[in-house]
Amino acid sequence: MRYLGLFVFFFGLNQSVFSQEITRISYADLAKWKKDKSDTVYVINFWATWCKPCLKELPSFESLGERFATQKVKVLLVSLDQKVQIESQLKPYVRNQYLRNKIYHFYDPKVVKWQQKIDKNWTGTLPATLIHQGRSGYTKMFVGPLTYQELYQTVNDLKP
């Protein structure tokens, strides 16, 4: 019984230690990344907790972030959940899945306007991933789920 108590204590301690911050961003923040001219590779994944294909591919982004953690590669997970879903769905999901990449929340009711600024052909389908590296001029929007291998190959070809 004593061991069970210790397990519960340490498990509870572990749960409370992990607290990923979710940063609210605007279109202006997204535009900064897209206009960046450095040799940093930005992998910006647009997702939501209600999107099953998004959740299925998130482990690939986590693995990618770990693989390139010491290089000029930034994996940014941009949630498009509604504001009312932040506390009830987004935060619990991020905490329960131990997501380590930087999490952002973006909400703008003028969806079509900002989506077309990110990529003129993007209709808003999720998941969607923008990969950008300013030095080479590479910017590409991928609509639909990506595998780890597709992500790795694209980023590996671009990294400085």
SSE layout and pairing:
Layout: H1 2-17, E1 22-25, H2 27-35, E2 41-47, H3 52-67, E3 73-79, H4 86-97, E4 102-106, H5 111-118, E5 128-133, E6 138-143, H6 148-158
Parallel strand pairs: 1-4, 2-3, 3-4
Antiparallel strand pairs: 2-5, 5-6
What does this structure look like?
The chain has helices at residues 2-17, 27-35, 52-67, 86-97, 111-118, 148-158; strands spanning 22-25, 41-47, 73-79, 102-106, 128-133, 138-143. Strands 1-4-3-2-5-6 form a six-stranded mixed beta sheet. 45% of the residues lie in helices and 22% in strands. It has one domain (20-158): Glutaredoxin, CATH 3.40.30. Residues 4-18 have low confidence and may be disordered. The protein is of the alpha/beta class.
| SSE string | HEHEHEHEHEEH
For the secondary structure, the number of strands is: 6
**Spatial gap, N to C terminus:** 54 Å
**Describe the biggest sheet?**
6 strands, mixed
What's the architecture, going by CATH?
3-Layer(aba) Sandwich
Number of domains: 1
The helix fraction, in percent, is 40-55%
Shape: globular
**Top CATH class:** Alpha Beta
Write down the CATH topology.
Glutaredoxin
- The rounded Rg comes to 17 Å
Please, how many helices? Answer: 6
